[in-house]
Amino acid sequence: MRGTRRLLRWSVIGAFVTGTVLLSGCSQINKTGANIAMRFTEKHIIPPVLKMDDTAMGCSAGEAITPLMLGAVWGLKADADKILVVQYASAGLCAEQRAFEHELRYLRAAKAGLIDEAQDARIQQKREAELAARRQYAGWQAFVHHYEVNRKSPIGDKCPKFKNDFDEMIYMMGMLTGVQSIVNDITAQQAVGVPKDIGAKVERGMMCLDNNKWWGAPMATRAAIWNLLPGAGEGKGDPWETIKQSMRIGERTGVRLPHAMYAMSAYTKGDEELVRDAIRSYAATTEMAVNPNYKMLDQMAFLIVQNISDRLWTEKAGSRTPPGSLGKFWDDAPAQQDDGVEIDDLL
Amino acid sequence: MQTLMKYSRGARLILAGTALALSSTMAMAAEKKTLCVWDIVGAQGDVFNMMKDYKLAAAKWGVTFDLKPYTDEKIAAEDFKAGQCDAVVMTGLRARQFNSFVGSMDALGALPTYAMQAKALATVASPAAAKLMVSGNYEVAGATPMGAAYLFVNDRSINTVGKLSGKKIAVLDYDKAQAKMVQLVGAQPVASDVTNFAGKFNNGSVDIIGAPAAAFKPLELVKGLGTKGAIVNFPLVQLTLQVLIRRDRFSEDFGQKSREYIQSQYPRAMSLIKTAEADIDKKYWMQIPEADKAKHISMMRDSRAALTNDGIYDKRMMSVLKKVRCQLEPTNAECAQSIE
Predict the structure, then answer these.
(1) For A192, which residue in chain B has the nearest alpha carbon?
(2) Do the Cβ atoms of A228 and B52 come within 8 Å?
(3) A91 in any annotated domain
(4) Is the sign of the CA dihedral B245, B248, B251, B256 positive or negative?
(5) Which of A12, A331, B257, B287 is at a distance of 20 to 30 A from B306, taking alpha carbons?
């Protein structure tokens, strides 16, 4: 009897131990499998997406795929930080564009004296900007988690040892996403509470990247921050000159992010002549060969420049930039009219 | 019949007068005004964002504003003075030159708590204070809080007024009050501006700066605080942002409407301030030792009195601020004295 009881006890303990080992084994297998899928995505899914030039599809993919990635992170404990940087940046872009549409509506309505409509547009703009800031800040946090926690390289204080181009690209994208999250949070009346030291960290963090390799974007970003943060650029050169040098690199390497930085920085400064110059400079590069591997990023630069042009056109002319008119302005002198031939002898 | 004709002539005159008044109001309404907005980060900043909503409120009163961002406050003030801006938004410190009464709200140690500042702001926004908002062709059309400026010290042993002696303090050159106070405590003023004061603190060329909590993260003042530094938890100055207008370009009632609107936005402004203050790690805040508090308050009061005598602060505002302090804290020693 005593022997049977002992046997039963050992059987229960044995079953428990075996079950635990099996289950943790399963979760380990799941985690490994999920991580393989993540690395596969980094290597074979995202690069082709970056070769596309359809930003609308890119942003929709971001909104659709991010929850699936989060499933892998939360449920399977996979390391999806780098993918989340891309996904959140893309999903943030969707909300940012919607916020921008409401901003244009606000401008049109205010111009037409439709105050209630304008107020509604402002409210909606703030809501979408909050969503954009929330997503972009989540992207920044994934970026910080990967480099600061996993790789012990505090942003702005220590450069990581990059493994490959994708790693470097994520480093840049994470920082740009962080800066965007501050801008959108300000529009949203700081509803998200994005920490404002991101700007200074990014200014230093961009030094980890090769400016020539990354289309002049790192230096252009730094110079835009010099323009933004009091004292950030002291002794570091003229911000506008730095941006223009970076634009030439951008044109040589086929991604016009520095042009977008120029337009954004000039707009922020409130210098309309510089804004026009930035838009014209971008428009003058239509013949440029776009880098085939990063068409998506070049297209994002286009979107930024076009948005700024649309803001100006809407404020001054009441509607956005007409088709084929990027680089032109409502008050440009009309082109010389061709009067045809003299027909007085017929009259 | 004659009376009737007389009445009808009178009515015609009234009608004509009304039509003239209406048409001039409509002309005023139709005309676009330029609102020059100083925001340290320009068109993407909190102030500019707030003014986008102000623009809509003003449209309801018949004024269409074009917002123009300025990152340099000095240029915004100069453009306003030169008439290139119909209205301007700038700090009270800078606005003092246009209206010393309201500009003196940002006086040294005059409003030790946010509750006191709220009462002072409500006072200037009330219709009863309307006359005091006007000085010549300038009118203050609203004031809103920007957060208290605190002393940031690179060594927390600088915790009494006496220990300020000989220390290097960054002072903004356009605010005469700062230089005066620094001189009074025996410290060494280092002329600075908003673009370099944080850098000077962070690289150790000055020991002390005054700044609002909102500057802490963006300017990474944590670097200047290091391991030994601290933020003195006593508002040095309650900073305000003020809207000023050129009176001849607006209708008579615009200023009051604007002041009441800006006052209605007080909770929004305070929420940004509270967020910025809560964002600073508790370990950096330093309380002034209780024994030294009275000395601190008295030093501030003496500075204010000296600055009022020098004509930098407005005597009437000093008296308003004292009333505010004594209404909220009637047991304060100063309430039984008549220094201010």
Answers:
(1) B275
(2) no
(3) no
(4) positive
(5) B287
